[in-house]
């Protein structure tokens, strides 16, 4: 089995999907933001972070395989973008102070279905982004016994995405991680991408020997 194909293919799909969603916001194309009116729009900040995740995943595949130095600065920049945007948004959510990070690039004025704050990603979505960013940092630090943590992060992200997808299938808002007054649901596009990203991380962790045990 080619353990490089899966994560790199997922990386490309994630980047292209993120760019398409951002284009949907810039050019007001509803289908690019969600499949229909009964689905939650994917926020602009989530789309931007998915582009960053795709970049991280692509270079992470190379690092895990042969540990080249090329691309380290690019993936590190992507990781920092995620950490700055998402951690600040998550902290503002938890302390109840709106610092406007979620609308820094694109102002989202209206809440769509299963949304509690315009432009703000689901708490579950933010946690998923942070896990990916931390995985990249752990690899770059060369920490020992990375493999179990690496695979565990992939399992968490995969499970979260799959549960959210099933939530849309069975019309269960709690499975979408929607908690009224606290957290918006995970959008269907985000759920599908997280399922793929989680699978890619598990594939990398299980299939390569360069990860510290």
Task: Using brief descriptors, characterize the structure shown.
213 residues; mainly alpha; 7 helices
Question: Which helices and strands occur, and which strands form pairs?
Answer:
Elements (H helix, E strand, L loop, with lengths): L4 H22 L3 H4 L10 H23 L5 H24 L27 H19 L4 H24 L18 H20 L6
Helix pairs in contact: 1-3, 1-7, 3-4, 3-5, 3-7, 4-5, 5-6, 6-7
Task: Describe this protein's structure.
The chain has one domain (5-207). 64% of the residues lie in helices and 0% in strands. The protein has 213 residues and is an all-alpha fold. The chain is built from 7 helices and no strands. Helix 5 packs antiparallel against helix 6.
Summarize model confidence as the mean pLDDT: 85
User: Any idea what the shape is?
Assistant: globular
Helix/strand-derived category reads mainly alpha
Order of helices and strands: HHHHHHH
Question: What count of helical segments does DSSP give?
Answer: 7
The number of domains: 1
Number of DSSP strand runs? 0
Q: What proportion of the residues form beta strands (DSSP E)? A: under 5%
Uncertain regions spanning at least 5 consecutive residues? none
Biggest beta sheet summary = none
What distance lies between the first and last C-alpha atoms, to the nearest angstrom? Answer: 21 Å
Radius of gyration: 17 Å
User: Oligomerization state of this entry?
Assistant: single chain
User: In percent, how helical is the residue content?
Assistant: 55-70%
